[in-house]
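Dear Dr. V.,

Thank you for agreeing to look over these. As mentioned in my earlier message, I'm a first-year student in the group and I'm still getting used to reading structure tokens, so any feedback on how I've presented them would be very welcome. I ran two proteins. I've put each sequence directly above its structure. The first is here:
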Amino acid sequence: MHENDDIFDYAIAGTNVPAGMELLMGEHGLSLVSDGMELCGDFGHMLSRVKNGKWQHEMLVRAAKPKNLGDTPLAVDATAGLGEDAFLLAAAGFRVCLFERDPVIAALLRDAIRRALRDEELAEIVSRMEFVEGDSIVEMPHLPQSPDVVLLDPMFPAKRKDAVSKKKLQMLQHLERPCEDETALMHAAMAAHPRKIIVKRPLKGPFLAGVKPDYSLKGKTIRYDCYVYAPSDGVV
């Protein structure tokens, strides 16, 4: 059995796909198809954002860089989705542990990583990404190593006036609802004892679980709320 067959069998036989959707293995990898829309994990389109040191200008990377990092800092992407934020952190030199609980999204992400490891332009970056299918709220308090950074991106609903949101966001929101227990997510991240927690939020959205950050970096539509912990706080 070829590796393509393995991932196809895993996705089709082991994943409960919602009604009206279908997982298909094609020439370019595993895709989720629904109502003429297609969703496929792919890191190739991210190359233009990281080549020639361009990753240094990414707001996420600027938010994630604590002082005095070692040679291989560890980040946890607790809500990985299709892994694009984790890819940016990996390009910046982080080892990244990715958690994704939705089995359909997990299958797409697993396949995207598999294909990227075969691409000479992507392999070096993706080799620093370790994917774990599971609920980060359950798993983070039991990590074997305290991470330097924990990234939380609890999906938030598209605004009603945004009738034509991106196809990818539409399908992701259909698969995985916005975080229903923000307090549990924040507490689980804190229990991992990171040096910093970063939360991706809509620009004017409330703080996650009502916890005020130490500072925020703001873009045009989103912001990154940053929570910094010192060794004296029991965080290493």
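The second protein is here, in the same arrangement:
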Amino acid sequence: MELFTKTPTEEILTEERLKELINSKTRLRHYIGFEISGLVHLGNGIISMLKVADLQKAGVETTIFLADFHSWINRKLGGDLSLIRKVAGGYFKEALKTSLKIVGGNPDELRIVMGSDLYEKVGVKYLENILRISMKTSLSRVKRSITIMGRKSGEALDFAQLLYVPMQVADIFTLGINIAHGGMDQRKAHVIAIDIGEKLFGYKPIAIHHHILTGIHISERERELVLKAKSSGDKEYVQEALMDIKMSKSKPKTAIFIHDDPEEVKSKVRKAFCPMGDIEVNPILELTKYVIFPLVGEMEIVNAKTGEKKIYATYEELEREFVMKALHPADLKRTVGETLSEILHPAYKYFKEGAGRKYLEEMETLKVTR
């Protein structure tokens, strides 16, 4: 179970049912779906693939679902379906495979499925699944679940966008998987799948949700809005506030892309938001907790003023010293920048100097630059 529950997992719905599946020797089949938009960053690349790598080590069959029709509905890449498919089958697929390799997973054991290919293969059965799910799901619940699209509750929608949630749930059962995986923003769709699964398809899938990284250049006001949401106790309010500040390719200054050059990584981290002694909504501490410690295992930080070196064996130890102001943000950021640049160096080499260069050049030709 440790591989399932370890960082960056935030929750499993439910651990008890997962234990039952494991103990019954049931074949475990996973998927995580991705909209196709811009460049891949630490959040949608490294964090997502950290969990995929864990699942591979646990003996789970892993699948990446390239959701081209969902991306079209959600108007990614200008709503150009042919462009979405070209990016999905080229750069995006390669970026996810590279991310998985960086975090210790095996891209050769990864099944990659394009949404439109699946729908063509299963034909009318997919439409039947959407209709069956839609008949068991209220319109109000679908509207409340549109946050999985990165949109706010109550936001104006066209009719096609109302199909997004039933389609996502249908993907789970059409693929025949029993472990649905995604960020915390995917929770509502997964809960629908759990609620209707047994009655319609004979089983309830497990849902695994990983942490969503905060953008590194948030403002003090954005931080205050998140803290206000947390103090309200309203989970939906909190989720929407966190989505407003997540790392996003549409806000390139908030993101570290997997193929950023080493100096750019260090520069971005150096300029990042990191209030001294404060652990609430601190993007640099998040990077240490969710990326560096899981991959490196420890951090050696040098005090720039005294030259003293200290090795932190756990994130908890580092956090305690940060709270006590025994660890200065500048020293922390310097080490985080250097460590991240080393972690991401294989992606930089592949996409900027190696065989992957053609994929980035194609993205530039297609004018998909972020």
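From my reading of the second output: The chain is about 55% helix and 10% strand. The longest helix spans residues 329-353. Does that match how you would interpret it?

Kind regards,
E.
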